[in-house]
Amino acid sequence: MAKKKRYRGHFCKVCRQILPNEKFSGKEHAAHICKKCATKQKKEKKKQSEEIAL
Predict the structure, then answer these.
(1) 29 — pLDDT class (breaks 50, 70, 90)
(2) Contact 34, 24 (CB under 8 A)
(3) Is residue 2 part of a domain?
(4) Domain-embedded: residue 3
């Protein structure tokens, strides 16, 4: 029986890709969200809060 092939890094739940560990940071690493997707989410959240304030 062949050995199970493992991938390196982590799976990002947002962009649905396997990325190296360097693409993750702190809380996002545990939540499985890469840096790129985390910044997108923060920008969207900020826009929504600004729209509500107006």
Answers:
(1) confident
(2) yes
(3) no
(4) no
Tokens 């939540």 correspond to what residue? 31
Query: Closest Cα partner for 32 from 44, 45, 16, 46?
Result: 16
pLDDT value at 1 more than 80 = no
Query: Is the residue at 1 inside a domain?
Result: no
Q: What is the mean pLDDT of the chain?
A: 88
For 44, the domain range is 10-53
Distance CA 32, CA 50 (A): 27
- 41's enclosing H/E stretch is helix 35-53
Over 90: is that where the pLDDT of 52 sits? no
